[in-house]
Every structure is written in structure tokens, then in C-alpha cells.
Write a structure and sequence with these properties.
two-stranded parallel ribbon, five-stranded antiparallel beta sheet, binds magnesium ion, ITPase-like_fam, metal ion binding, binds ligand CZF, about 190 residues, Inosine triphosphate pyrophosphatase, alpha+beta, 5 helices, Maf protein
Length: about 190
């Protein structure tokens, strides 16, 4: 039986990937573009709080997602604050931040959160993909895709066939954990 999930996100690119990945697991995604305030904290704290607020707003079960980009040389920063860094300094700024550091290594971290409804503690599912920060290569329409070269591929996420990205990405890995969890719930 097809399962339906309500996904609260303001990010159309995320939605496209989530729908494509979950379709393979026979899960239909209904999107709600609500702007949920995001707290400061670790990526797990940010994700859990976002989902708690989303469940209150929609009044029922829902999922949210938070993406972080952790630079190894900077102890994990920008982490969950990558969106603000992208907005303020862009692709070239992300590269410039690592000038003089011995490693350009970075981890893309995706944290999905599922809440059964208002007042229910969100369950978290984390997926990570290793890579490095490189000068822009490929289309630039999705966040930092064009400056993140996934380890062992020789390609930035932006250069990849989207179907391939969806088999190795942080998002895919987190979603497979969410799917396993959903199987334990009644239909
Ligand atoms: O190149 C990318 N490849 C990806 O796979 C990816 N996933 C997210 N992002 C970007 O990283 C920030 C996360 O912030 P974020 O998790 O708060 O998202 P958001 O505010 O856009 O949407 P949402 O919080 O409403 O779901 C935002 O700038 C996103 O555009 C990505 N960039
Ligand atoms: Mg956000």
C-alpha cells in the first residue's frame, strides 16, 4: 500500500530529490511550504525543534529535513548555518574560507525528523556523504551542490546525473533510515 508523508519545507530542490527517492519506496510526498523558524544549536537540536514546530503547525504527522555542511578544517562549521553562509558569501566565499587550511574536506549531513503529531517527540535519521570543497563546477541552482565534490566520484553534486546523486547523497542515506523506521509503524 502507498504510504503518504507530509513534508514541511520551503526548499523546492530538496522536495524534488525527496519525492524522487521516496517514490522508489512507494511513498507519496505531500509538500507544505511553511517557513519554520530555525533555532541555533547542533544539527540534531535544530532538526528536532524544526519538526516539533512543524507538527504543531500542521496538527498531525509530518517530516522535516535539515541540511548541514561541515568543514573539517573548521571543526564542523558552518554546519547547520550553511544557508546563511551561502546567502552572504556564496560559492567563492566558501572556497575562500578554507584558504590556508591543509584540508578542504567537508561532510554533507542530512537529518530527517519524523513527528507523529503535536507534542510527540521527533525521531531523527541522519545521513552523511564525505567530500571536499572545490571551485564551482556545474549548474548553480541548488545551494552548494556546485562546490561539493563527493569523495571517490571526481564530480561535484551539480555535475552528477541527478539519478546518481540520489543513490549516494546524504539525503538518500538519511531517507533509507527513515523508510526502515516507517516500516515499523502501522500503515
Ligand atoms: O547544494 C546543495 N545540495 C544539497 O543536497 C542541499 N541540501 C540543502 N542544501 C542547501 O543547504 C542549506 C540548508 O538549509 P536548510 O536545511 O535550513 O534548508 P532550507 O531552509 O532551504 O529548507 P527548509 O528548512 O524549509 O527545509 C540551504 O541553503 C539549502 O539550499 C543543499 N545544497
Ligand atoms: Mg531552513
Amino acid at each position: 500500500m502507498t504510504r503518504k508523508l507530509v513534508f514541511i519545507t520551503g526548499n523546492k530542490n530538496k522536495l524534488v530529490e525527496v519525492q524522487a527517492i521516496l517514490a522508489k519506496f512507494d511513498i507519496e510526498v505531500e509538500a507544505r511550504a511553511l517557513d519554520i523558524p530555525e533555532i541555533q544549536g547542533t544539527t540534531l537540536e535544530v532538526s528536532a525543534d524544526k519538526c516539533r514546530r512543524a507538527a504543531e503547525l500542521v496538527g498531525g504527522p509530518c517530516i522535516t529535513e535539515d541540511t548541514a555542511l561541515a568543514f573539517h578544517a573548521l571543526g564542523g562549521l558552518p554546519g547547520p548555518y550553511i544557508k546563511d553562509f551561502m546567502k552572504t558569501i556564496g560559492h567563492s566565499g566558501l572556497n575562500a574560507m578554507l584558504t590556508g587550511f591543509p584540508t578542504k574536506g567537508a561532510t554533507a549531513i542530512c537529518t530527517f525528523a519524523y513527528s507523529a503529531g503535536p507534542g510527540e517527540t521527533p525521531q531523527l535519521f541522519v545521513g552523511e556523504t564525505e567530500g571536499e570543497i572545490v571551485p564551482v563546477r556545474g549548474p548553480t541552482h541548488f545551494g552548494w551542490d556546485a562546490v561539493f565534490q563527493a569523495a571517490g566520484t571526481g564530480q561535484t553534486f551539480a555535475e552528477m546525473d541527478p539519478v546518481f546523486k540520489n543513490t549516494i547523497s546524504h539525503r538518500f542515506k538519511a531517507l533509507t533510515k527513515l523508510v526502515d523506521f516507517l516500516k515499523t509503524l502501522p500503515e
